[in-house]
């Protein structure tokens, strides 16, 4: 069962299979406020959730300003954040997503990112 869910997730998140808006409404929409509170408490840059039911997949991504992206727009926003690491990250996450979903748990992930630029060094005068 987990492999079947992983295949569905792979098709929806890494290929262009359609995600179901009605599944978002049925399983994800009611949790937005709770996930938003978690995002603020954990100081995440965004949080996303993925679900599967009866062969259909849905996804939501929530921003710190409470902007909500659903399904394909959530996938596009996640891809924008992760850029060239999008497929690498999802290939790592899909088995974990499938494991949670097979146990009837919605996969929810808060994300913190960091800049790849080295921090600026501040040079100070040596004490005499």
Index terms:
elongated; 4 strands; alpha+beta; 128 residues; four-stranded antiparallel sheet
Question: Could you characterize the architecture of this molecule?
Answer:
The chain is α+β, with helices and mostly antiparallel strands and 128 residues long. It contains 5 helices and 4 strands, in the order αααβββααβ. It has helices at residues 2-14, 21-28, 32-42, 72-82, 86-102; strands at residues 46-53, 56-62, 68-70, 107-111. The chain has a 4-stranded antiparallel sheet, with helices on both faces. Helix 1 (2-14) packs antiparallel against helix 5. The model has no long low-confidence stretch (mean pLDDT 91).
Quick synopsis:
The chain has five helices and four strands; from the N terminus they run αααβββααβ.
Number of domains: 1
User: Quick one: overall form?
Assistant: elongated
Query: CA-to-CA gap between the ends?
Result: 69 Å
Number of helical elements: 5
Q: Given the helix and strand composition, which structural class is it?
A: alpha+beta
Secondary structure: helix percent: 40-55%
Using the CA coordinates, give the radius of gyration: 18 Å
Low-pLDDT runs of 5+ residues are: none
What fraction strand? 15-25%
Q: How many strands appear in the DSSP assignment? A: 4
Q: Return the average pLDDT rounded to an integer.
A: 91
Strand line-up of the largest beta sheet:
3-2-1-4
Q: How is the biggest beta sheet arranged?
A: 4 strands, antiparallel
Order of helices and strands: HHHEEEHHE
Oligomer: single chain
């Amino acid at each position: 069962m987990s492999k079947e869910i992983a295949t569905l997730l792979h098709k929806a998140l890494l290929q262009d299979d359609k995600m179901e808006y009605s599944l978002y409404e049925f399983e994800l929409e009611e949790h937005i406020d709770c996930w938003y509170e978690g995002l603020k408490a954990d100081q995440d840059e965004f949080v996303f959730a993925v679900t599967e039911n009866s062969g259909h997949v849905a996804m939501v991504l929530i921003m710190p300003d409470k902007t909500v992206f659903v399904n394909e727009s959530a996938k596009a926003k996640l891809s924008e954040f992760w850029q060239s690491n999008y497929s690498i990250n999802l290939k790592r996450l899909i088995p974990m997503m499938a494991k949670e979903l097979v146990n009837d748990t919605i996969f929810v992930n808060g994300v913190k990112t960091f800049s790849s630029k080295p921090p600026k060094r501040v040079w100070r005068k040596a004490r005499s």
